[in-house]
Amino acid sequence: MQSIWIEKSVPLEGKVVVSSAKNAVLPIMAATLLTGETCTIHKMPRLSDVQAMVEVLNHLGSQTHMKYDTLTARCEGLVTEEAPYEAMRRLRASVLVMGPLLARFGKARLPLPGGCNIGVRPVDLHLKGFRALGAEITLGNGYVTATAPRLTGARIYLDFPSVGATENLLMAACLAKGTTILENAAKEPEIMDLGEMLMAMGAKIKGLGSDFLIIEGARQLSGVEYTPIPDRVEAGTFMVGAAMTGGNVLLQNVRCAHLRPVLAKLREAGATITEYPKSLRIKGSPKIHSVDIKSLPYPGFPTDMQPQMMALCCLGDGTSVITETVFENRFLHVGELKRMGADILIDDRSAVVKGVSQLQGTKVEAPDLRAGAALILAGLAAKGVTQIMGLEHIDRGYDRLEEKLRSLGASIERRDA
Ligand SMILES: CC(=O)N[C@H]1[C@@H](OP(=O)(O)OP(=O)(O)OC[C@H]2O[C@@H](n3ccc(=O)[nH]c3=O)[C@H](O)[C@@H]2O)O[C@H](CO)[C@@H](O)[C@@H]1O
Ligand SMILES: C=C(OP(=O)(O)O)C(=O)O
């Protein structure tokens, strides 16, 4: 078993190139199943979630290859409509193969995704949408089986703007007969990125970036070459690192427009941020102001940045109230941060964080991906040495994190331990 060891950091200084977004890349990989032609995806991040999705695609019948950071995928036909159980459990986003499989091949069978550490994460909205498109869905023995000779366009209102349900239904609607309208759709930038890739494949989509999507189904889609958007959560994580260490970091390959709530909260906390067309510079201030945060669907504050911002607030000059509205159980980092000396009280879906002058290094365990990132950030600012276990979570979503942090001056290494 491996762990990450971190010593209290000097202020982070230098530049970092942000990788492509995990949450854009995974649906884009699923979308390659919508065509029998070759899809080429550039600038792929090195993530265990990407490896798991490659396994899922190959298992289903796609010929998927990675050369350097370019992925090619070609799925001329299905070997099986049943998604592999093991990869499915490792990768929640694998549920996104359901839309493409149903739309192109008329059948899909997937192990129902279980709960994960941050919440139960049901797929009822995905299934309700597929039913509205004419699919017959049965549940049994832990599997969902869906069939449809050909999906038919429909008007679908999402009870909650679910990212995954919007993506799954958007992909399915591209090959459905007639027009589909998605109301109260999620508006995350990664959905827009998926939509742009689908349009480059020949899909007809109107309203991208809004919560009202109109999709005109096509008989078939073509191959595509595509480069996904930069990872706004990775960018945000490095920004918090700079803010917590009083550093000065230039982040390259960022879209500031995707980072509005994070930039606003970091500025409120005292950081100075200069925006450029494809990059930004962040300078931390010696004093961190406590800020309140409420996670919301985009364009609200991203839940995927809530744990990292909580790490920052642990060193604030007052009290922060951090409210998590998207996932019912996304405070698992609280116990670990408290072990490092943080003063945090959970009250239902809010955490009340009283700033302390110093965190202390100790052995902690990452309970999920962004909680792991929060612990790394806390470790950079903490006195002494921090050892972080549970790296399988962190490796799902951060591309060469230690290498990038080391290039900024951090003392961080991975050891067999
Ligand atoms: C691979 C990927 O892109 N993951 C992101 C995606 O996850 P994901 O697509 O799973 O997130 P959703 O937006 O679907 O989930 C948000 C909330 O809706 C609930 N829900 C969702 C679907 C459903 O059918 N029924 C239901 O109740 C979930 O349990 C959760 O409480 O968006 C989340 C919210 O921005 C991010 O934190 C994840 O990083
Ligand atoms: C929750 C996340 O991802 P996933 O939906 O893949 O679990 C995340 O990226 O923080």
Automatic annotation (TrEMBL):
GO biological process: cell division; cell wall organization; peptidoglycan biosynthetic process; regulation of cell shape; UDP-N-acetylgalactosamine biosynthetic process
List of residues binding UDP-N-acetyl-alpha-D-glucosamine: R92, R121, P122, V123, D124, L125, D304, V326
Alphabetical keyword list: Cell cycle, Cell division, Cell shape, Cell wall biogenesis/degradation, Cytoplasm, Peptidoglycan synthesis, Pyruvate, Transferase
Family recorded in the similarity comment: Belongs to the EPSP synthase family. MurA subfamily.
Active site: C116
Database matches in NCBIfam families: murA, PRK09369.1
Main location: cytoplasm
Domain Enolpyruvate transferase: 7-405
PANTHER family with a match to the protein in the record: UDP-N-ACETYLGLUCOSAMINE 1-CARBOXYVINYLTRANSFERASE
HAMAP family in the cross-refs: MurA
Modified residues (2-(S-cysteinyl)pyruvic acid O-phosphothioketal): C116
Residues involved in phosphoenolpyruvate binding: K22, N23
Protein's job: Cell wall formation. Adds enolpyruvyl to UDP-N-acetylglucosamine.
Pathway participation: Cell wall biogenesis; peptidoglycan biosynthesis
This enzyme's EC code(s): 2.5.1.7
Name assigned to this protein: UDP-N-acetylglucosamine 1-carboxyvinyltransferase
Catalysed reaction equations from the record: phosphoenolpyruvate + UDP-N-acetyl-alpha-D-glucosamine = UDP-N-acetyl-3-O-(1-carboxyvinyl)-alpha-D-glucosamine + phosphate
Single Gene Ontology MF annotation: UDP-N-acetylglucosamine 1-carboxyvinyltransferase activity
GO cellular component: cytoplasm
Domain of life: Bacteria
Gene name as annotated: murA
Protein's cellular compartments: Cytoplasm
